[in-house]
């Protein structure tokens, strides 16, 4: 089956997640480079702040679905994005759906250099990475992004 055939067989909400992610991934890559993390995050937070409705359906399933669609949009999109770019987009999609989530950034020392990694958590569970990412990276304390439901 073609990619378009698979796309049209997706539930409507997943198609919306995919399309939003496909547009936002390259914009986020550019935004992070041009204005930096904090400013780009603030722009996205403002774009999602007017959306204050309770999530429709099971928030865990919606969050997992959004994570799958961000990954699919990254695979089939214009460019391959970093973990930070994908995590920022997932964080924004979940905020739009009023699903509480946290954007996490962790670091580790490998040999003689530091590595950083980003992921998103919902209900303290990792959405867009392996569940044991906490064992490999030490996350910064506190959330780097405000949750939708505070």
Key features?
single chain; 150 residues; alpha+beta; 4-stranded antiparallel β-sheet; disordered C terminus
Portion in helices = 40-55%
Major sheet attributes: 4 strands, antiparallel
Biggest β-sheet: strands ordered side by side in the sheet:
3-2-1-4
- How many domains in all? 1
Strand content: 15-25%
Please state the overall shape, judged from the principal axes of the Cα atoms: globular
Radius of gyration: 15 Å
Task: Give the integer mean of the pLDDT values.
Answer: 87
Low-confidence region ranges: 146-150
Helix and strand content put the structural class at alpha+beta
Distance between the ends: 43 Å
Instruction: List the secondary-structure elements in sequence, H or E.
Output: HHHHHEEEHE
Determine the number of helices (DSSP H or I, runs of at least 4 residues): 6
Total strand count, please? Answer: 4
């Amino acid at each position: 089956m073609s990619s378009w055939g698979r796309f049209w067989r997706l539930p409507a909400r997943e198609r919306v997640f995919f399309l939003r992610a496909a547009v936002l991934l390259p914009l986020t890559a550019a935004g992070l480079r041009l204005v930096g993390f904090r400013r780009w995050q603030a722009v996205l937070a403002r774009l999602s702040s007017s959306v204050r409705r309770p999530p429709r359906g099971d928030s865990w399933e919606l969050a997992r679905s959004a994570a799958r669609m961000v990954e699919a949009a990254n695979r089939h999109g214009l460019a391959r994005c970093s973990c930070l770019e994908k995590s920022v987009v997932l964080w924004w999609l979940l905020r739009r759906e009023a699903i509480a989530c946290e954007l996490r950034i962790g670091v580790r020392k490998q040999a003689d250099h530091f590595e950083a990694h980003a992921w998103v958590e919902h209900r303290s569970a990792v959405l867009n990475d392996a569940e044991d990412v906490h064992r490999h990276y030490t996350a910064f304390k506190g959330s780097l992004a405000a949750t939708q439901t505070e």
